[in-house]
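Hi W.,

Here's what went into the run:
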Amino acid sequence: MTDNWIWHTERIPPAVTAWLTGLLGGGAGVELAKMVIVAAILTGFVSLLALALVWIERKVAAHVQQRLGPMRVGPHGLLQTLADGLKLLSKENITPLEADHFVFHLAPLLCFAATFVALAFIPFAPDIQAVNFNVGLIFVLGIGSVGVLGILAAGWSSNNKWSLLGAMRAGAQIISYELSATIALLSILVFAGSLDFRGIIASQAGGWWIWRAPVVGFVAFVIYGIASTAECNRTPFDLVEGESELTAGFHTEYTSIRFAMFFLAEFVNMFVVCAISATVFLGGWMPFHIGNAAGFNRIADFIPPWAWFFGKTTLLVLVFMWVRWTFPRLRVDQLMNFEWKFLLPLAFCTLAVASVLVTAGWYFFPG
Amino acid sequence: MGFLGRATTAVGGLLQGMGITFGHYVRFSEVITQQYPENRATLRMAPRFRGKVHLLRDPESGAFRCTACGLCVKACPNNSLTVQRERDPATNKFRLSGYYYHFERCTLCGLCVDTCKFSALAMGNEFENAALDRRALTLRLDTPDGVPQPAPEGTP
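Here's what came out:
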Protein backbone atom coordinates (compact mmCIF):
# COMPACT_ATOMS: atom_id res chain seq x y z
CA MET A 1 0.00 0.00 0.00
CA THR A 2 2.82 2.39 0.81
CA ASP A 3 4.50 1.56 -2.48
CA ASN A 4 3.29 4.53 -4.51
CA TRP A 5 4.45 8.08 -5.17
CA ILE A 6 2.86 9.49 -2.01
CA TRP A 7 5.42 7.59 0.09
CA HIS A 8 8.16 7.41 -2.55
CA THR A 9 8.33 11.01 -3.68
CA GLU A 10 11.74 10.38 -5.25
CA ARG A 11 9.80 8.85 -8.16
CA ILE A 12 8.11 12.16 -9.01
CA PRO A 13 11.04 14.15 -10.56
CA PRO A 14 12.08 11.39 -13.02
CA ALA A 15 8.44 10.90 -14.01
CA VAL A 16 8.01 14.63 -14.64
CA THR A 17 11.27 14.74 -16.60
CA ALA A 18 10.19 11.80 -18.73
CA TRP A 19 6.78 13.38 -19.36
CA LEU A 20 8.35 16.71 -20.34
CA THR A 21 10.89 15.02 -22.58
CA GLY A 22 8.06 13.23 -24.34
CA LEU A 23 6.17 16.49 -24.66
CA LEU A 24 9.02 18.77 -25.78
CA GLY A 25 11.33 16.23 -27.39
CA GLY A 26 14.30 16.79 -25.07
CA GLY A 27 16.94 19.53 -25.19
CA ALA A 28 17.14 22.81 -23.25
CA GLY A 29 13.37 23.21 -23.39
CA VAL A 30 12.89 20.50 -20.77
CA GLU A 31 15.20 22.22 -18.29
CA LEU A 32 13.47 25.55 -18.91
CA ALA A 33 10.04 23.98 -18.47
CA LYS A 34 11.18 22.38 -15.22
CA MET A 35 12.41 25.72 -13.94
CA VAL A 36 9.12 27.40 -14.81
CA ILE A 37 7.10 24.62 -13.16
CA VAL A 38 9.18 24.70 -9.99
CA ALA A 39 9.04 28.51 -9.81
CA ALA A 40 5.27 28.42 -10.24
CA ILE A 41 4.88 25.74 -7.56
CA LEU A 42 7.13 27.64 -5.13
CA THR A 43 5.29 30.91 -5.76
CA GLY A 44 1.97 29.26 -5.08
CA PHE A 45 3.41 27.54 -2.03
CA VAL A 46 4.79 30.82 -0.65
CA SER A 47 1.45 32.58 -1.06
CA LEU A 48 -0.50 29.77 0.60
CA LEU A 49 2.14 29.44 3.31
CA ALA A 50 1.97 33.14 4.16
CA LEU A 51 -1.84 33.07 4.30
CA ALA A 52 -1.80 30.00 6.53
CA LEU A 53 1.00 31.23 8.79
CA VAL A 54 -0.60 34.62 9.36
CA TRP A 55 -3.87 32.93 10.26
CA ILE A 56 -2.13 30.48 12.60
CA GLU A 57 -0.13 33.29 14.17
CA ARG A 58 -3.26 35.30 14.87
CA LYS A 59 -5.05 32.29 16.29
CA VAL A 60 -2.11 31.34 18.53
CA ALA A 61 -1.77 34.94 19.69
CA ALA A 62 -5.47 35.06 20.46
CA HIS A 63 -5.61 31.85 22.46
CA VAL A 64 -2.44 32.67 24.38
CA GLN A 65 -4.19 35.89 25.39
CA GLN A 66 -7.52 34.16 26.12
CA ARG A 67 -9.15 35.59 23.03
CA LEU A 68 -10.70 33.94 19.97
CA GLY A 69 -8.92 35.76 17.15
CA PRO A 70 -10.46 36.11 13.70
CA MET A 71 -13.87 34.40 13.63
CA ARG A 72 -16.01 36.31 11.14
CA VAL A 73 -14.60 35.79 7.64
CA GLY A 74 -15.13 32.15 6.78
CA PRO A 75 -15.31 29.33 9.33
CA HIS A 76 -13.12 30.30 12.30
CA GLY A 77 -11.80 33.23 10.26
CA LEU A 78 -9.99 31.01 7.77
CA LEU A 79 -10.48 33.51 4.95
CA GLN A 80 -9.47 36.50 7.07
CA THR A 81 -5.89 36.63 5.78
CA LEU A 82 -7.12 36.35 2.20
CA ALA A 83 -9.40 39.33 2.78
CA ASP A 84 -6.55 41.26 4.43
CA GLY A 85 -4.26 40.41 1.53
CA LEU A 86 -6.79 41.64 -1.04
CA LYS A 87 -7.25 44.81 0.98
CA LEU A 88 -3.47 45.38 1.05
CA LEU A 89 -3.18 44.87 -2.70
CA SER A 90 -5.95 47.34 -3.43
CA LYS A 91 -4.34 50.13 -1.39
CA GLU A 92 -2.49 53.10 -2.82
CA ASN A 93 1.22 52.63 -3.34
CA ILE A 94 2.85 55.60 -1.65
CA THR A 95 6.48 56.65 -2.06
CA PRO A 96 7.73 59.35 0.33
CA LEU A 97 8.65 62.63 -1.33
CA GLU A 98 12.41 62.62 -0.66
CA ALA A 99 12.84 58.86 -0.80
CA ASP A 100 15.56 57.25 -2.88
CA HIS A 101 13.16 55.82 -5.45
CA PHE A 102 15.29 53.09 -6.95
CA VAL A 103 16.46 51.65 -3.63
CA PHE A 104 13.04 52.18 -2.07
CA HIS A 105 11.41 50.04 -4.74
CA LEU A 106 14.19 47.47 -4.77
CA ALA A 107 14.25 46.78 -1.01
CA PRO A 108 11.05 44.70 -0.66
CA LEU A 109 12.04 42.66 -3.69
CA LEU A 110 15.44 41.92 -2.14
CA CYS A 111 13.82 40.85 1.11
CA PHE A 112 11.31 38.65 -0.62
CA ALA A 113 13.77 37.16 -3.10
CA ALA A 114 16.14 36.16 -0.30
CA THR A 115 13.56 34.07 1.52
CA PHE A 116 12.10 32.76 -1.72
CA VAL A 117 15.48 31.46 -2.89
CA ALA A 118 16.18 29.92 0.51
CA LEU A 119 12.95 27.97 0.19
CA ALA A 120 14.22 26.36 -3.01
CA PHE A 121 16.92 24.52 -1.04
CA ILE A 122 14.64 22.97 1.56
CA PRO A 123 14.10 19.23 1.10
CA PHE A 124 10.38 18.70 1.66
CA ALA A 125 10.53 14.97 0.99
CA PRO A 126 12.98 12.55 -0.68
CA ASP A 127 14.06 14.34 -3.90
CA ILE A 128 11.39 17.02 -3.51
CA GLN A 129 13.86 19.87 -3.44
CA ALA A 130 14.10 22.54 -6.12
CA VAL A 131 17.89 22.92 -5.98
CA ASN A 132 20.41 20.55 -4.50
CA PHE A 133 24.11 21.04 -4.35
CA ASN A 134 26.87 19.99 -2.04
CA VAL A 135 27.06 23.15 0.13
CA GLY A 136 23.32 23.82 0.30
CA LEU A 137 23.28 24.76 3.97
CA ILE A 138 26.05 27.36 3.60
CA PHE A 139 24.26 28.78 0.59
CA VAL A 140 20.97 29.11 2.48
CA LEU A 141 22.73 30.83 5.39
CA GLY A 142 24.39 33.22 2.93
CA ILE A 143 21.13 33.94 1.13
CA GLY A 144 19.54 34.66 4.50
CA SER A 145 21.95 37.58 4.92
CA VAL A 146 20.76 39.15 1.68
CA GLY A 147 17.45 39.72 3.44
CA VAL A 148 19.23 42.07 5.86
CA LEU A 149 20.41 44.06 2.87
CA GLY A 150 16.77 44.53 1.90
CA ILE A 151 15.90 45.74 5.39
CA LEU A 152 18.88 48.12 5.47
CA ALA A 153 18.00 49.43 2.02
CA ALA A 154 14.39 49.96 3.06
CA GLY A 155 15.34 51.90 6.17
CA TRP A 156 17.97 53.96 4.37
CA SER A 157 15.87 54.91 1.36
CA SER A 158 12.70 55.77 3.30
CA ASN A 159 14.08 59.17 4.33
CA ASN A 160 12.69 58.68 7.81
CA LYS A 161 14.89 58.72 10.90
CA TRP A 162 12.88 56.03 12.70
CA SER A 163 13.04 53.75 9.70
CA LEU A 164 16.78 54.28 9.57
CA LEU A 165 17.10 53.50 13.28
CA GLY A 166 15.12 50.31 12.81
CA ALA A 167 17.22 49.29 9.84
CA MET A 168 20.47 49.93 11.72
CA ARG A 169 19.20 47.86 14.62
CA ALA A 170 18.32 45.12 12.13
CA GLY A 171 21.81 45.20 10.68
CA ALA A 172 23.52 45.02 14.05
CA GLN A 173 21.15 42.39 15.40
CA ILE A 174 21.04 40.03 12.46
CA ILE A 175 24.78 40.11 11.84
CA SER A 176 25.42 39.40 15.54
CA TYR A 177 22.94 36.57 15.87
CA GLU A 178 23.90 35.00 12.57
CA LEU A 179 27.19 34.01 14.22
CA SER A 180 25.48 32.00 16.93
CA ALA A 181 23.04 30.44 14.49
CA THR A 182 25.78 29.38 12.13
CA ILE A 183 28.02 28.01 14.87
CA ALA A 184 25.11 26.06 16.36
CA LEU A 185 24.46 24.50 12.96
CA LEU A 186 28.19 23.92 12.53
CA SER A 187 28.38 21.82 15.68
CA ILE A 188 25.81 19.47 14.16
CA LEU A 189 27.51 19.52 10.78
CA VAL A 190 30.59 18.17 12.53
CA PHE A 191 28.51 15.11 13.41
CA ALA A 192 26.72 14.88 10.08
CA GLY A 193 29.91 15.33 8.07
CA SER A 194 28.07 16.99 5.20
CA LEU A 195 26.96 20.46 4.12
CA ASP A 196 24.44 19.00 1.72
CA PHE A 197 20.85 18.84 2.98
CA ARG A 198 20.55 15.36 1.51
CA GLY A 199 23.68 14.21 3.29
CA ILE A 200 22.55 15.77 6.57
CA ILE A 201 19.24 13.91 6.40
CA ALA A 202 20.91 10.67 5.30
CA SER A 203 23.23 10.88 8.33
CA GLN A 204 20.16 10.86 10.59
CA ALA A 205 18.81 7.52 9.40
CA GLY A 206 19.88 5.99 12.71
CA GLY A 207 18.41 8.77 14.84
CA TRP A 208 17.95 12.51 14.98
CA TRP A 209 20.97 14.63 15.90
CA ILE A 210 19.06 16.43 18.65
CA TRP A 211 19.43 13.34 20.84
CA ARG A 212 22.14 11.33 19.07
CA ALA A 213 24.67 14.05 19.80
CA PRO A 214 24.56 13.78 23.60
CA VAL A 215 23.47 17.10 25.26
CA VAL A 216 25.35 19.05 22.57
CA GLY A 217 22.58 18.39 20.06
CA PHE A 218 19.91 19.81 22.35
CA VAL A 219 22.02 22.81 23.36
CA ALA A 220 22.79 23.59 19.72
CA PHE A 221 19.07 23.22 18.91
CA VAL A 222 18.13 25.76 21.59
CA ILE A 223 20.91 28.16 20.53
CA TYR A 224 19.81 27.93 16.92
CA GLY A 225 16.20 28.50 17.98
CA ILE A 226 17.08 31.66 19.92
CA ALA A 227 19.44 33.02 17.28
CA SER A 228 17.02 32.35 14.44
CA THR A 229 14.23 34.09 16.34
CA ALA A 230 16.50 37.14 16.36
CA GLU A 231 17.27 36.66 12.68
CA CYS A 232 13.57 36.61 11.85
CA ASN A 233 13.10 39.83 13.85
CA ARG A 234 10.44 38.19 15.98
CA THR A 235 9.58 39.05 19.56
CA PRO A 236 11.46 39.04 21.98
CA PHE A 237 14.01 40.31 19.45
CA ASP A 238 11.72 42.54 17.39
CA LEU A 239 13.64 45.74 18.11
CA VAL A 240 13.83 46.24 14.38
CA GLU A 241 10.12 46.90 14.19
CA GLY A 242 9.76 48.12 17.75
CA GLU A 243 6.13 49.10 17.32
CA SER A 244 5.96 51.21 20.45
CA GLU A 245 9.20 53.10 19.87
CA LEU A 246 9.90 53.10 16.13
CA THR A 247 6.35 52.58 14.79
CA ALA A 248 7.23 49.55 12.66
CA GLY A 249 10.83 50.58 11.96
CA PHE A 250 12.13 49.92 8.48
CA HIS A 251 8.75 49.37 6.81
CA THR A 252 6.95 52.42 8.24
CA GLU A 253 6.85 54.16 4.86
CA TYR A 254 5.79 51.12 2.87
CA THR A 255 2.22 50.59 1.76
CA SER A 256 0.23 48.25 -0.39
CA ILE A 257 2.01 45.38 -2.15
CA ARG A 258 5.48 46.50 -1.06
CA PHE A 259 4.46 46.22 2.57
CA ALA A 260 2.81 42.90 1.76
CA MET A 261 6.15 41.65 0.42
CA PHE A 262 7.95 42.50 3.67
CA PHE A 263 5.16 40.80 5.55
CA LEU A 264 5.34 37.75 3.31
CA ALA A 265 9.12 37.60 3.61
CA GLU A 266 8.90 37.76 7.40
CA PHE A 267 6.56 34.80 7.66
CA VAL A 268 8.21 32.69 4.97
CA ASN A 269 11.55 33.42 6.65
CA MET A 270 10.19 31.96 9.87
CA PHE A 271 9.12 28.86 7.96
CA VAL A 272 12.54 28.55 6.32
CA VAL A 273 14.32 28.85 9.65
CA CYS A 274 12.06 26.22 11.21
CA ALA A 275 12.52 23.97 8.18
CA ILE A 276 16.32 24.21 8.50
CA SER A 277 16.05 23.48 12.21
CA ALA A 278 13.79 20.49 11.52
CA THR A 279 16.17 19.23 8.83
CA VAL A 280 19.40 19.57 10.75
CA PHE A 281 18.25 18.64 14.26
CA LEU A 282 15.07 16.62 13.79
CA GLY A 283 15.90 14.54 10.75
CA GLY A 284 13.94 16.43 8.09
CA TRP A 285 11.53 14.04 6.38
CA MET A 286 13.05 11.01 8.19
CA PRO A 287 10.36 9.16 10.16
CA PHE A 288 10.92 8.61 13.86
CA HIS A 289 12.21 5.09 14.48
CA ILE A 290 12.90 3.26 17.72
CA GLY A 291 15.76 0.77 17.48
CA ASN A 292 14.26 -2.68 16.89
CA ALA A 293 10.59 -1.93 17.60
CA ALA A 294 9.44 -3.15 14.19
CA GLY A 295 5.74 -2.54 14.87
CA PHE A 296 6.28 1.08 15.88
CA ASN A 297 8.66 1.65 12.98
CA ARG A 298 6.06 0.33 10.55
CA ILE A 299 3.46 2.76 11.88
CA ALA A 300 6.01 5.60 11.61
CA ASP A 301 6.75 4.59 8.02
CA PHE A 302 3.05 4.64 7.24
CA ILE A 303 3.10 8.43 7.65
CA PRO A 304 4.50 9.83 4.39
CA PRO A 305 7.87 11.63 4.58
CA TRP A 306 6.44 15.03 3.55
CA ALA A 307 3.96 14.75 6.40
CA TRP A 308 6.87 14.12 8.79
CA PHE A 309 8.66 17.18 7.43
CA PHE A 310 5.64 19.46 7.66
CA GLY A 311 4.70 18.05 11.05
CA LYS A 312 8.12 18.82 12.51
CA THR A 313 8.29 22.23 10.90
CA THR A 314 4.78 23.16 12.03
CA LEU A 315 5.61 22.11 15.56
CA LEU A 316 8.66 24.38 15.54
CA VAL A 317 6.64 27.22 14.01
CA LEU A 318 4.09 26.85 16.80
CA VAL A 319 6.88 27.02 19.39
CA PHE A 320 8.18 30.19 17.70
CA MET A 321 4.70 31.71 17.93
CA TRP A 322 4.27 30.58 21.52
CA VAL A 323 7.57 32.29 22.43
CA ARG A 324 6.60 35.42 20.53
CA TRP A 325 3.36 35.87 22.41
CA THR A 326 4.88 35.10 25.81
CA PHE A 327 7.95 37.30 26.10
CA PRO A 328 8.29 41.09 26.02
CA ARG A 329 10.85 42.87 23.87
CA LEU A 330 14.47 43.21 25.03
CA ARG A 331 16.42 46.46 25.15
CA VAL A 332 19.13 47.00 22.54
CA ASP A 333 21.99 46.71 25.04
CA GLN A 334 20.44 43.59 26.59
CA LEU A 335 20.16 42.11 23.13
CA MET A 336 23.81 42.70 22.34
CA ASN A 337 24.99 41.63 25.79
CA PHE A 338 23.04 38.40 25.48
CA GLU A 339 24.50 37.58 22.09
CA TRP A 340 28.14 38.52 22.59
CA LYS A 341 28.58 37.64 26.27
CA PHE A 342 26.36 34.58 26.59
CA LEU A 343 25.05 32.99 23.41
CA LEU A 344 28.19 33.20 21.28
CA PRO A 345 30.55 31.80 23.97
CA LEU A 346 28.02 29.05 24.62
CA ALA A 347 27.86 28.28 20.90
CA PHE A 348 31.66 28.10 20.73
CA CYS A 349 31.72 25.76 23.75
CA THR A 350 29.13 23.59 22.05
CA LEU A 351 31.21 23.46 18.89
CA ALA A 352 34.34 22.56 20.86
CA VAL A 353 32.59 19.81 22.80
CA ALA A 354 30.97 18.55 19.60
CA SER A 355 34.36 18.31 17.90
CA VAL A 356 35.78 16.34 20.82
CA LEU A 357 32.78 14.01 20.84
CA VAL A 358 33.04 13.36 17.11
CA THR A 359 36.76 12.72 17.24
CA ALA A 360 36.37 10.31 20.12
CA GLY A 361 33.24 8.74 18.62
CA TRP A 362 31.32 9.43 21.85
CA TYR A 363 27.83 9.69 20.46
CA PHE A 364 24.94 7.32 19.83
CA PHE A 365 25.31 4.87 16.93
CA PRO A 366 28.56 6.18 15.40
CA GLY A 367 29.74 4.89 12.06
CA MET B 1 24.58 34.85 43.21
CA GLY B 2 27.05 33.98 40.52
CA PHE B 3 26.61 34.13 36.78
CA LEU B 4 25.37 30.57 36.46
CA GLY B 5 22.90 31.07 39.30
CA ARG B 6 21.46 34.15 37.66
CA ALA B 7 21.29 32.39 34.29
CA THR B 8 19.41 29.47 35.88
CA THR B 9 16.96 31.83 37.59
CA ALA B 10 16.40 33.65 34.30
CA VAL B 11 15.73 30.44 32.38
CA GLY B 12 13.41 29.28 35.16
CA GLY B 13 11.44 32.51 34.93
CA LEU B 14 11.17 32.25 31.16
CA LEU B 15 9.96 28.65 31.38
CA GLN B 16 7.42 29.61 34.03
CA GLY B 17 6.08 32.33 31.74
CA MET B 18 5.86 29.91 28.85
CA GLY B 19 4.01 27.49 31.10
CA ILE B 20 1.39 30.11 31.88
CA THR B 21 0.80 31.03 28.24
CA PHE B 22 0.75 27.35 27.27
CA GLY B 23 -1.99 26.83 29.85
CA HIS B 24 -4.05 29.60 28.29
CA TYR B 25 -3.31 28.27 24.84
CA VAL B 26 -4.52 24.71 25.41
CA ARG B 27 -7.51 25.48 27.66
CA PHE B 28 -10.04 26.80 25.19
CA SER B 29 -12.62 27.16 27.96
CA GLU B 30 -10.62 30.10 29.33
CA VAL B 31 -11.47 32.25 26.32
CA ILE B 32 -13.10 35.47 27.47
CA THR B 33 -14.21 36.78 24.07
CA GLN B 34 -17.92 36.40 23.41
CA GLN B 35 -19.49 36.13 20.01
CA TYR B 36 -22.13 38.83 20.39
CA PRO B 37 -24.79 38.99 18.93
CA GLU B 38 -24.82 35.28 18.05
CA ASN B 39 -24.75 34.28 21.70
CA ARG B 40 -27.28 36.84 22.94
CA ALA B 41 -29.22 34.13 24.71
CA THR B 42 -26.20 32.82 26.64
CA LEU B 43 -24.31 36.07 27.08
CA ARG B 44 -22.14 36.15 30.21
CA MET B 45 -21.95 39.60 31.75
CA ALA B 46 -19.34 40.73 34.25
CA PRO B 47 -20.94 41.05 37.71
CA ARG B 48 -19.53 44.54 38.23
CA PHE B 49 -20.69 45.84 34.85
CA ARG B 50 -22.40 49.23 35.26
CA GLY B 51 -25.69 49.34 33.44
CA LYS B 52 -28.90 51.17 34.30
CA VAL B 53 -29.62 52.07 37.93
CA HIS B 54 -32.18 49.84 39.64
CA LEU B 55 -34.16 50.16 42.83
CA LEU B 56 -33.71 47.17 45.12
CA ARG B 57 -36.44 45.62 47.23
CA ASP B 58 -36.27 44.37 50.77
CA PRO B 59 -36.36 40.57 50.42
CA GLU B 60 -38.64 40.11 53.46
CA SER B 61 -41.32 42.78 53.02
CA GLY B 62 -40.99 43.09 49.25
CA ALA B 63 -41.11 46.87 49.51
CA PHE B 64 -38.49 49.16 47.97
CA ARG B 65 -35.62 49.80 50.33
CA CYS B 66 -35.48 53.44 49.29
CA THR B 67 -36.37 55.85 52.11
CA ALA B 68 -36.50 58.85 49.77
CA CYS B 69 -33.70 60.54 51.71
CA GLY B 70 -32.35 62.15 48.53
CA LEU B 71 -28.63 61.48 49.07
CA CYS B 72 -28.39 59.95 45.60
CA VAL B 73 -29.89 63.08 44.08
CA LYS B 74 -27.24 65.18 45.83
CA ALA B 75 -24.47 62.80 44.73
CA CYS B 76 -25.49 62.74 41.09
CA PRO B 77 -23.16 65.00 39.06
CA ASN B 78 -25.54 65.24 36.11
CA ASN B 79 -28.79 65.79 37.92
CA SER B 80 -30.19 62.66 36.38
CA LEU B 81 -32.12 61.45 39.43
CA THR B 82 -35.31 62.92 40.88
CA VAL B 83 -36.88 61.63 44.09
CA GLN B 84 -40.43 62.61 44.96
CA ARG B 85 -41.59 61.96 48.51
CA GLU B 86 -44.71 62.29 50.59
CA ARG B 87 -45.56 61.95 54.28
CA ASP B 88 -47.07 58.68 55.33
CA PRO B 89 -50.25 59.76 57.17
CA ALA B 90 -50.00 56.84 59.64
CA THR B 91 -46.39 57.17 60.77
CA ASN B 92 -45.80 60.77 59.71
CA LYS B 93 -42.52 59.66 58.04
CA PHE B 94 -41.35 60.38 54.52
CA ARG B 95 -41.86 57.69 51.95
CA LEU B 96 -41.07 57.35 48.25
CA SER B 97 -43.77 58.47 45.89
CA GLY B 98 -41.82 58.67 42.63
CA TYR B 99 -38.27 57.78 41.62
CA TYR B 100 -37.40 59.24 38.20
CA TYR B 101 -34.25 58.37 36.34
CA HIS B 102 -33.03 60.47 33.41
CA PHE B 103 -30.98 57.83 31.67
CA GLU B 104 -30.25 60.18 28.80
CA ARG B 105 -28.17 62.29 31.20
CA CYS B 106 -26.63 59.47 33.21
CA THR B 107 -22.89 58.79 32.78
CA LEU B 108 -23.12 55.50 34.69
CA CYS B 109 -20.57 56.78 37.21
CA GLY B 110 -22.15 54.84 40.08
CA LEU B 111 -21.85 57.63 42.67
CA CYS B 112 -25.57 57.21 43.56
CA VAL B 113 -25.00 53.53 44.38
CA ASP B 114 -21.90 54.34 46.44
CA THR B 115 -23.62 57.02 48.40
CA CYS B 116 -26.87 55.17 49.22
CA LYS B 117 -26.99 54.43 52.96
CA PHE B 118 -29.66 51.75 52.66
CA SER B 119 -28.22 49.71 49.76
CA ALA B 120 -31.40 50.52 47.91
CA LEU B 121 -29.70 51.10 44.55
CA ALA B 122 -27.75 48.86 42.22
CA MET B 123 -26.52 48.97 38.66
CA GLY B 124 -27.79 46.35 36.27
CA ASN B 125 -26.23 44.45 33.38
CA GLU B 126 -28.23 45.81 30.46
CA PHE B 127 -26.21 47.41 27.73
CA GLU B 128 -28.52 47.46 24.71
CA ASN B 129 -29.87 50.87 25.66
CA ALA B 130 -30.33 52.54 22.31
CA ALA B 131 -33.63 54.36 21.80
CA LEU B 132 -35.09 56.31 18.91
CA ASP B 133 -36.44 59.08 21.13
CA ARG B 134 -34.73 60.54 24.18
CA ARG B 135 -38.08 60.76 25.94
CA ALA B 136 -38.08 56.96 26.09
CA LEU B 137 -34.98 57.19 28.31
CA THR B 138 -36.63 59.13 31.14
CA LEU B 139 -37.75 56.30 33.38
CA ARG B 140 -39.83 55.84 36.48
CA LEU B 141 -38.16 53.18 38.58
CA ASP B 142 -40.61 52.60 41.47
CA THR B 143 -43.22 50.75 39.44
CA PRO B 144 -45.24 47.98 41.12
CA ASP B 145 -43.69 45.18 39.01
CA GLY B 146 -40.18 46.63 39.29
CA VAL B 147 -39.83 47.09 35.50
CA PRO B 148 -38.83 50.68 34.72
CA GLN B 149 -41.51 52.47 32.70
CA PRO B 150 -41.07 55.59 30.57
CA ALA B 151 -42.03 58.55 32.68
CA PRO B 152 -44.78 60.89 31.48
CA GLU B 153 -43.97 64.08 29.62
CA GLY B 154 -42.82 66.95 31.83
CA THR B 155 -41.25 64.82 34.54
CA PRO B 156 -38.77 66.90 36.58
